[in-house]
Each structure stands twice: as C-alpha cells, then as structure tokens.
Here is the input.
Amino acid sequence: MKKTLSILFALIAWFALLTQYYLMLQNRVAPMGETTIRFFSFFTILTNSIVAIYFTFISFKIKNRFLEIINRRDTLTAITVYITIVGLVYQILLRHIWQPKGMQRIVDELLHTLIPLLVIIYWYLYENKSLLSFKQIPKWLIYPICYLVFILIRGYFSTFYPYPFVDITHLGLSKVLINSILLVLLFAGLSSIFIAVGRKTKT
Here is the structure.
C-alpha cells in the first residue's frame, strides 16, 4: 500500500508541475528563459518539485549518494511542513486574488490543495514520529530562509516578485522584511505543531 500511494502521489505531482509549466509557457509575457526562471521562483513550484522527487525516489528505491537526504529520518516531516505552508498561504492569502478557469483551475487545486492534503495523510500513516525532535527545526528553516533571500535579491534586480506579500516595489523594504519574519515564524510554529502531534501519535 505504501509503495502504491508513493507512486500515485509522484504521478499526481509530476502531472501538476509539467502541466503548470506548459500553461505558463502558453501565457508567458517574457522570453522562455525568463519565464522558466520565474516558474521556479514560486515556492509552490519548488516545494511541489521536492514532493515529486521525494515520492519518485522512495517509490522506485533509487539509490544515489548525492541524494541520501531523501532517506534521512526527518525528511518527510520537513517536506510535509513545507507543502502544508504552500496550502495554508494559498488558502488564506492568495486564493481570493485570482479566479483560474479550466485546466489552470485543476492544476491550481492539485498544487495548493490536493497534494498538501495527500502528503499530510502520508506523513500521518508512515512517518517514524518517534525520531522527531524540536532540535530539528533550525535545520528545516534553512530552505524557506534561503528561498526568501533568493526571491528578494532577484526581485531587486529583475523587479519580479512571485508573491504580493514580498513585493518590495509596492510594499517597501520594511513591510516585506516584517512579512518575511512572520513567514519564518509560521514555518517554525507549524514545525512545532507537527512534532508535537507526532510525539502523541508515534508509529
């Protein structure tokens, strides 16, 4: 059952990502190279890519010494935190700002709603929660912090910001820094919740 779910989740994630890339290219307002960079500038895309890669590797038991992190004891929980943030931020802050239609709406729901829910379910069923520790949180924060630094630096030079709450052009640096700090705190808080829940439901 675990392998079947892993394969299914990998297929769903890859389908959503590839379709989203195709749709973005079809509606691009910048050259293909810049559009591709913008595509990978979204936390949603990067995190769903991590989800797709993770489930692909564990589905087919791919071995690679450069990807040993896949088998680390806390990798699944970290990924679950990241993709849960994708879902929460979208539902609370972003859903109301646009109304996608047709295939774009389907892909949108896959990336922001279904996949986060599937990963949470998988985490609940199969994560070895006895190995979780609050000491792991600082390490989990490296990815979102590096992401924030990247989009702010690139946004400064390109004027493209993937999300309105980090748009320095419209909000100003001070407001964006406050928003960034709040996001990091959200990551830390959600990580603590998953660890606390995990400790009460050890498998």
In short: Residues 2-200 form one domain. The mean pLDDT is 90. The CA atoms of residues 165 and 176 lie 7 Å apart.
